[in-house]
Automatic annotation (TrEMBL):
<keyword id="KW-0732">Signal</keyword>
<feature type="signal peptide">
    <location>
        <begin position="1"/>
        <end position="25"/>
    </location>
</feature>
<dbReference type="InterPro" id="IPR006311">
    <property type="entry name" value="TAT_signal"/>
</dbReference>
<dbReference type="InterPro" id="IPR006059">
    <property type="entry name" value="SBP"/>
</dbReference>
<protein>
    <submittedName>
        <fullName>Sugar ABC transporter substrate-binding protein</fullName>
    </submittedName>
</protein>
<dbReference type="InterPro" id="IPR050490">
    <property type="entry name" value="Bact_solute-bd_prot1"/>
</dbReference>
<dbReference type="Pfam" id="PF01547">
    <property type="entry name" value="SBP_bac_1"/>
</dbReference>
<dbReference type="InterPro" id="IPR019546">
    <property type="entry name" value="TAT_signal_bac_arc"/>
</dbReference>
Length: 441
């Protein structure tokens, strides 16, 4: 399993609680240095399989190859990490290398002058940049400058479906929004929920809006929100997307009681692989869990997957995707020159090596390295991994999840209003009015 729902949920708690900005921080040396005149660099990241083991292995390989440039890794469980980072930032004692997701947190810490500008370093080390997916740099970039090193895996959000459910109604997977709406009554007539959704978790609902905004109006609609443009949520495409989601809710497009289903326990995935729901919009991190828990659902060839279809008359490019374009490593401004050099050497020779890429592939993850096709072909799940690789590498735009892109304050308001929208307790116009108030916060 690359990233199960639980790790995704932990990430979102972390984003809300620590500024989504675990990727960027005001940092100093953490704890006592060991030898080398304080040159030992510190590196903090989250626990949980399989990432923790792979990250520690990368550090071990680097330390073995670089006796004069050592890195001290420390892994924290989500809540402990969230608290530790916040405390360390306030005390100026955060680690040299900070692992996270870029986006809104990165932007806020960049504006506070707390993380190093890596633009010139990447220009001087073009080979490092050129081997990574170009789409991975968006969430590492603020005002045209790069402040974090993309790393690890790419996790787009896709439309999963149960081939058995489509056989039961004699239909094909949807090729447009119109097809989706046409399929809803057909599945309901057979006692199958058209879509699984863990609505109580809120961020799961958000994935629908991310795609509808893009497919209807293109990436510039949300980009205007991210850029802090006044009344950006009032875009006609936004109101159209918000209205379409409520039409789907009213048509019983989601499993009954979706607002009380929680993603942490993978209940939404179970609805799909047990045949209770026909489709599910979710991140590719759920694939490993479905393969592990779903009996022969995946191994038996019953799981289908595709990019989210276009909306009739929409302006967005149907190759666009959204999700986690990568994970990110930032360097604190307060680290010593020696520590920063060690961090940059790690970025050059220790991140996404062939050994690390192979470890991610073995756990169902697609590393953000160009030219992985041959390794994918010989992996455990070649068809799915190739689909993920193609979706990510061919996307004209790979947008970062909204709650990562926004500040913690705006992200919490966003999730709260999305939940109300899906519960039909506010109108699209009320959503727009509420969210316009927090633009730029």
């Amino acid at each position: 399993m690359a990233h199960g729902s639980m790790s995704r949920r932990n990430f979102l708690n972390l984003a809300a609680g620590a500024g989504a900005g675990v990727a960027l921080a005001s940092c100093g040396s953490s704890g006592p240095s060991q030898g080398g005149g304080g040159a030992e660099a510190s590196y903090w990241f989250l626990t949980a399989a399989p990432g923790e083991v792979i990250r520690k292995n990368a550090v071990s390989r680097f330390n073995k190859a670089n006796p004069d440039n050592q890195i001290k890794p420390t892994a924290f469980e989500n809540d402990a990490y969230k608290t530790k980072i916040r405390t360390a930032l306030g005390a100026g004692q955060a680690p040299t290398i900070i692992w996270g997701w870029g986006g809104g947190g990165l932007k806020s810490w960049v504006e506070a002058g707390q993380v190093d500008d890596l633009t010139d370093w990447f220009a001087q080390n073009a080979a490092v940049k050129d081997r990574l997916f170009p789409s991975s740099f968006g969430a590492a970039t603020v005002n045209g400058k790069i402040y974090a090193m993309p790393c690890e895996t790419v996790e787009p959000i896709v439309l999963f479906y149960d081939k058995r459910a489509f056989d039961k109604i004699g239909a094909e997977p949807p090729q447009s929004w119109g097809d989706i709406m046409d399929l809803v009554p057909k599945f309901n007539a057979k006692g199958i929920a058209p879509f699984s959704l863990a609505g109580q978790s809120r961020w799961t609902n958000m994935m629908w809006l991310e795609f509808l905004f893009d497919r209807i109006g293109g990436p510039e609609v949300f980009q205007a929100v991210f850029d802090g443009q006044k009344d950006a949520w009032s875009h006609p495409a936004a109101l159209d997307a918000l209205g379409k989601v409520q039409e789907l809710v009213r048509a019983d497009g989601f499993v009954k009681g979706f607002s009380s289903v929680v993603a942490d326990a993978n209940a939404d995935q179970a609805l799909l692989f047990t045949g209770k729901a026909a489709m599910m919009v979710h991140g590719t991190w759920t694939y490993g869990q479905m393969a592990e828990e779903g009996g022969n659902f995946v191994s038996g060839g019953n799981l289908g997957y595709m990019n989210f279809p276009p909306v009739d008359g929409g302006k967005g490019d149907p190759s666009n995707t959204v999700g986690n374009p990568a994970q990110y490593l930032a360097i604190s401004t307060k680290s010593s020159a020696e520590q920063k050099e060690t961090a940059k050497k790690f970025f050059t020779t220790g991140v996404l090596t062939d050994e690390e890429s192979a470890e991610w592939l073995d756990t169902g993850g697609v590393p953000i390295v160009k030219g992985s096709e041959s390794k994918i072909a010989s992996s455990k799940d070649p068809a799915f991994l190739k689909f993920v690789y193609d979706t990510a590498s061919n996307a004209k735009v790979f947008a970062q999840s909204w709650d990562q892109a926004l500040s913690p304050t705006a992200a919490e308001k966003l999730l709260d209003n999305i939940a109300k929208l899906f519960q039909l307790s506010i109108t699209p116009q009320q959503y727009v009015d509420n969210m316009n108030q927090v633009i730029g916060q």
